Amino acid sequence: MSIFMIKIIACVSMVLDHVKYAIPETTCFATKYLGRIAFPLFAFLAVEGYCHTSDLKKYYQRLIVFALISQVPFMLFRSLLGNWLMLNIMFTLLLGLIAITVFDKFGKKYYFSLPLVAFIIYMGKLFCVDYGYYGVAAVFTLYVCRHQKFLRIIIFALLNFVYYYPRLTTYYSFSNVISYLCATLPAVLILAYNGKLGPKTKYIYYIFYPAHMLILYSISVIL
């Protein structure tokens, strides 16, 4: 499975996850649960981009530019959920990449790098980015465990358990167990990654992300 195919799966999953908020009548198993697959795949794609970019500075600049472009569409879309005071997922990925960069720069000085990484992860909650501390930690975890594929599944499953545990103990525990399993599934899916790029679609996700939210928000307003 190439990077291109992972992007397609992630984008389809993201639309499934978001469409139920714009059109509540579409709520079903696919929109309720399969949408959980999207973010971990995008986190993986961010890590691969970091590892293979020829110009890290430009990679950061591109992420910052599209994070700013996406913020208004994101806030409009989040207004459908009644909670629009958040930063979009591009900022989540950006914090994750900063944590990775810090770890790479000071990796052998664990007494210095790990507290810094922990603080950057906490910034995910402090700055109210989408997926909070979990989103930043997911990016970092997928990077640190990138060479140990099965360990990556175990660590990612544990991270998801910590994140979903408060929900798993609620009355709707069965539903949240399914959400947890679907959120962990990407760690297994990326075992099929063949290391190939596939068709070059450098800016598709960057453009698709704010565009699909604007479209869904417009549909919701019209309906």
The radius of gyration over CA amounts to 17 Å
The portion of residues forming beta strands comes to under 5%
Termini distance?
38 Å
Q: How many beta strands in the DSSP annotation?
A: 0
Could you describe the largest sheet, including whether it forms a barrel? none
Globally, the shape reads globular
Q: What is the domain total for the residues?
A: 1
Helical amount among residues, as a percent range?
Answer: over 70%
Number of H/I helices: 10
Structure keywords:
single chain, 223 residues, mainly alpha, 10 helices, globular
Description of the molecule:
- With 223 residues, the chain is an all-alpha fold.
- It has one domain (3-222).
- 75% of the residues lie in helices and 0% in strands.
- The chain has helices at 3-22, 29-33, 38-52, 56-78, 89-106, 110-126, 132-144, 149-168, 173-189, 204-222.
- Helix 1 runs antiparallel to helix 3 (38-52) and helix 8 packs antiparallel against helix 9.
- The chain is globular, with a radius of gyration of 17 Å.
- The model has no long low-confidence stretch (mean pLDDT 89).
In short:
This protein is mainly alpha-helical and 223 residues long.
Q: How are the SSEs ordered, and which strands pair?
A:
Elements: H1 3-22, H2 29-33, H3 38-52, H4 56-78, H5 89-106, H6 110-126, H7 132-144, H8 149-168, H9 173-189, H10 204-222
